[in-house]
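Appendix B, example 12.
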Amino acid sequence: MTNKITTLNFENAYNQLNELQQSAVTETEGPVLVIAGPGTGKTQILAARIANILTTTDSLPENILCLTYTDAGTIAMRKRLQQFIGADAYRVQVFTFHSFCNNVIQENLDYFGLKGLDAISELEQIAYVHEIIDGFGKDHPLKRYTGDVYFETKKLLSLFENMKKENWSADFLAQKADEYLADLPYREEFTYKKAYKNAKAGDIKQHLVNAEVVKMNTLKAAAHCFDVYQEVLKRNSRYDFADMIIWVIKAFKDKPEMLSIYQERFLYFLVDEYQDTSGSQNELLELLLNYWDKPNVFCVGDDDQSIYRFQGANVENIEQFIKKYTPFTITLEANYRSSQYILDASRLLIGNNKIRINPDKHLLAQTITEAPIPEIRSYYNTTHETVCIAQEIAYLQQSGVALSEIAVLYRNHKQAEDIIRYLKSKNITVNTRKKLNALEDPFIQKIIRLLTYIEAEHKKAHSGEAYIYELLHYDFFNNDPIEIARISVDVYKRNFNERNTSWREELRRAHTRKSPDLFTTKQPGEQLSKTSQLLEKWIKDCANVTIQQLIESIISESGMLVLALSGPDKIWNMQLLHTFFDFVKTECSRNPKTNITRLLNTIQLMQNEGVELPAQRISYAEDGVHFLTTHSSKGLEFQYVFILGCNSKAWEKSGSNRNFKLPDTLFTIANEDESDENRRLFYVALTRAKTHLYISYAERDANGKDLEKSRFIAELETKANLPTKALHATDDSLLEFETALLQQRPATAKNDIFDNEFVDELLVKYSLSVTHLNNYLKCPTAFYFNNIVRVPAPLSASMTFGSAVHHALEMLFKNMNAHVDKQFGTAENLYNDFRWYMLKHEDSFTEMAFKRRLEYGQEILPKYYNRYINEWNKITSVERSYRNIVIENVPMNGKLDKLEFDGNVVNVVDYKTGQYENAKKKFNRPDSEKVQLAIELGKEVAFEDEFGGDYWRQAVFYKILMDYDQTKNWEMRTAEFDFIEPDKKSGEFVKQKVALTSEDVGVVKQQIIKTYNSIKAKQFSNGCQKDECVWCGFVNDYYANKQVSTIPIQETEVD
């Protein structure tokens, strides 16, 4: 009975197909290629074809192999098959390419010998690449001594992934790179079309060729790391999923009898999403098909919807398939989803892509006969866009439109955050699935920060003080912020010359501190003492319990768990907690020796390399508005589709290059640029709509900065003649929106952490340095914490390296001045003083970072010494300090690296580590014209344009100090900034001289006076409010009863 029903289901489905679809189902013998555009019934055809094979031939379900691109595609295929053939659907061999290869490996374990292997994690991949980078020699093209020394990690992993996907060897890539370079002189873009300066028409643009040579040499060096990477995987008994395909291909080639088993087992082959197959997947398929002259293979896909990888390889795979098998080709153009208006607009947009299989493909609407023309909408700013779309959705709901038939599409989740919150405030249900990084959630960050402090204090007492200020503010500890600030200042003052106390000691006796006045009834420090007892217990427990037990104690004993379960986000908090605990358990399972140090190192590696601990925050309602990224919308359809945020920044500007450049000789078809893939993604978004399509962009952001519309909007306007409506929200609706968002924010605390008697005490004897001046101008809030309260901060590796270089140069000139004959020491002396300082402060570095920085110092310091030894002025004063210099009632201080004398005329030298190229803007003077232009254009005013660069101001500040010094008759005319690291491009050392003018002095004087008066007036609350500013975030979160979990590293000189 079941077979009759399923057969009837198939017949009914088959009869509903159009002629071309039926042809795709019935052409079962020989190769068939189907180009299936959006809404043309691709999945239905695949399932119906399998059912037809089983109905009209003697083949068994086990003789059919269906390969899909994703696991979701496998599930969808199986579900559709079950409707046609019932339980036999589970006998049809439906796999992804990877799961098919895994099946082959499992069936032949004795041959593959992989019983002891585990799949590699993303973290392990990164760690292994770091190991390879650490092993680079001095002259390796990818070797870096400073900055992000592991910068190439993701680029290397991406290259290795592509090499596996396409089955490229390092030698093959090198050959293609050489072919590319050899061809450059014959390419139009690399030769002058007409005479230019010293070049004649037809001459080679050598500078462009040289740049490509560098890129290709870098690629070759990277590619030759591939075999090393594979050896590291083998040594550690690891593999990744791409390896499985390579292994099976090699096995099929080396052992033909194994290949023949699968060739004889399968009589029919079906491949879904063929446009997304990689080179290795295509090679695997060809091996399986080579048994027949005319294989029964059915490939279906749409090159216009390829949104996951570069198209050059995709189209090449399809063209090779056509060339090799001359398949019966069907292009499905009957669309059962969208209106003709939508289809025409989509066709005219995608027509701008040059690399297409069938550029004449013309989709025709079959079911939608009446629908409005798609609209492009421009809004005054992003807030207007959010409000107007939300109001239209509310209107649609009131008009009886099912919310499940409405979708809002966007490029990234951040674009939709406000509209989701606004709709929820209006009680409109939404469906969202947002993958968040649990490690970035404040709840989990507090646990990590506490673990970091405990681990540091357990290793070495007082080494965790850089973290204590922040964690004492955590809401579950309930400490008074003023009491915390008092301890911070007391610890700093008592330890100014030598260590006399510590945070732990002061916290232990916090309850013994005197009340600030006679009217305070509560004993100060009582809560701090309780917090101290908890911290001391956890530090002690650290060595005696497992990491899982320690985390459990922290969460329960601190009050964190009670607080997490009492708020509106208690379900999400528990989900985060379970996610984090599962992660810890997994790490302990993978490495039973995991302790607090290993766990924190793992988390640090994840944060440094952008590896997420994913947690899905799902909001679901059966009848809710769907909020989807464009990538996740593929395969779905809705009556109403809003595509918001269609600005160039979101759709076209990808930022820095994330991959090594590949030579275009890898493909017979010219490779495309990134805009073509973005256009295909936009095409996917357009074709999700059935009847109503609204495409919108904002002309400005919420701060008034001008935004550029996407090029795809322009193409739709010009090619498809779509009308554009300029819309704006009413004042009442904007007020409602702002009110709704404000009501969702937590109530603020009443304490004012800046304006109190304690801060008055700190400012009584305040003196301004140039570092303080620069810091205040950048952010008054950060200045308060860093320079007034003196929150402890960890020294960075780069700062310690710079201090070591300063120390070595100071000793070089001090020893010269002390020498009877004014003789400099040797280059070896210079390096030894550098090395002494580095060894003394080795705890500022990781083991590898210390080794690398020491090697870098050994590389550059002798070169620097030899470059200038015969030029240095010997009439010098080093580390000259100025204190209590007063200018118009402003006390100032400073310390100068070196003074060079010519009589009483002084040139002040300041040593800088780092690259001159990155410091150029720091020499700029204020530029009022640029400031005015930025304001007129609605752009952010650059700090250097408004206030001048830090180095320029430093030079002028030093001149003012010297001018107002009554003890010496010295005249400072110039400042010289001496860069100790050679320029990366030229290899030359750079000195930048700054000539000082009376105008410069006047400007900086005003900055000094205004800044000092602002500091004395306790004007610290108006911070920069930049996303990257930790202390602005700290204050904002403090008032919202939350704290951030990152203390900024101090990258400034000691005053």
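The two ends are 90 Å apart (CA to CA). The mean pLDDT is 88.
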